[in-house]
Each structure stands twice: as structure tokens, then as C-alpha cells.
């Protein structure tokens, strides 16, 4: 199974899949993978999330690190890992989920906003810390400022990040970025995978172009 570290080394982006229905989930995941996205998070608030994770982790998406998002308690953590999730993401610092993830042997990326919360998440055993909502926090400048006293903590800014913003966050020292609606658009609702593929391919080109 592809690890999160391996996936982010290939492309430092975690695609966030949050949907009101499960109808197009697998097609969306396949489209993202085909464009070169290697890390994907299916939120546990999405109908059919566990089934989609099980399909992806069971061989449906080779070369992709599949995780579960919006994991709010230990029960949800166990359900996600049982389905095959290789990592867990939370919207806040939730010691119960961090502890359960460590017990189950999977990385946890808790959501945090302030330096105090970021340090708390890290000290409790977070593998990386999701800075959320990053856009409201101040964008790449905020990430750069936080990393000055806390350079040892891998940060994954998420929330309000468009394709054109990604290089700035990476230059500021982000380990990766999380992208939801600016990348996904309405694909989970209307099944427009052609438009999704175009957005994803543009993202991959932008990120790889910034490496140069």
C-alpha cells in the first residue's frame, strides 16, 4: 500500500472529497488518480465513505494513499481503518482520535488554527498538522511565521486554497496542501469528470512547475 509520505513526495497535495451522495465517488477518485493526484481524503460525513475507501484501498486505486477525513471520535477512526484508510484527518485537535490512530498504527493529521493548537497536536502524537482554515489564518505568510519557531512540525494548510495559491504555500514551507472545492468543484454532485480532470491536471502542472 502506498504510504502518505510516498504520495506526498510524488505530489504534495491531499485532495479532499466531501459529497452529499455516493453516486460519483469512485469515478471522482479514479479521475484524480488519472491526473496524478496521489493522496486523497474521503470525509466520513460523505455517504458511502467507508465503501469508497475499502474499494480504493483494496486495489481500486493503485499507487494512491487513501485516507479518511472528518474523523471525530475513536469509533469513526476504527471504522475508517477497518475499511483500509491509511491515515486519519480531523477538523480540530481531538486527543481521542490521535490516541486511537497511534494505537491502530496509522498517521493522524489533526486540524489546528493557532500556534498553541498546532504544538498541542504535535505533542500528542500528530504525524502532521492540518492548519485550518489556512486562508482565513493569513495564507502562506501565516505558515511561514508559524514555521519560524516550530520548524520541526510538518504543516498541511487546508481551506480556501486555489490552484494558483499552492506554490506560495510550498515556498512558505508547507509539507503539503489540502484542497477541496477549488479542485473538486461540483464533480461529486454532477459527475463532470472531464472538468475535474482538467482542473486536476492544471494543479499537477502548477505544482511540478513550481519545483523548477
Task: Considering the chains and any ligands shown, give keywords for the structure.
single chain; 212 residues; alpha/beta; 4-stranded parallel sheet; 3-stranded parallel sheet; 12 helices; 49% helix; globular
Structure commentary:
By secondary structure, this protein is an alpha/beta fold. The chain is built from 12 helices and 9 strands. The strands form 3 sheets. The chain has a 4-stranded parallel beta sheet with strand order 3-2-1-9.
What is the C-alpha radius of gyration, as a whole number of Å?
Answer: 16 Å
Q: Provide mean pLDDT, rounded.
A: 96
Helix content: 40-55%
Total helical elements: 12
Low-confidence stretches: none
Largest sheet: 4 strands, parallel
Structural class: alpha/beta
| Strands, count | 9
Distance between the termini: 29 Å
Broad shape:
globular
Following the backbone from N to C, one meets helices and strands in this order, namely HEHEHEHEHEEHEHHEHEHHH
Strand order of the largest sheet: 3-2-1-9
DSSP strand (E) fraction?
5-15%
Family: Belongs to the KHG/KDPG aldolase family.
Keywords: Carbohydrate metabolism, Lyase
Pathway: Carbohydrate acid metabolism
Pfam families: Aldolase
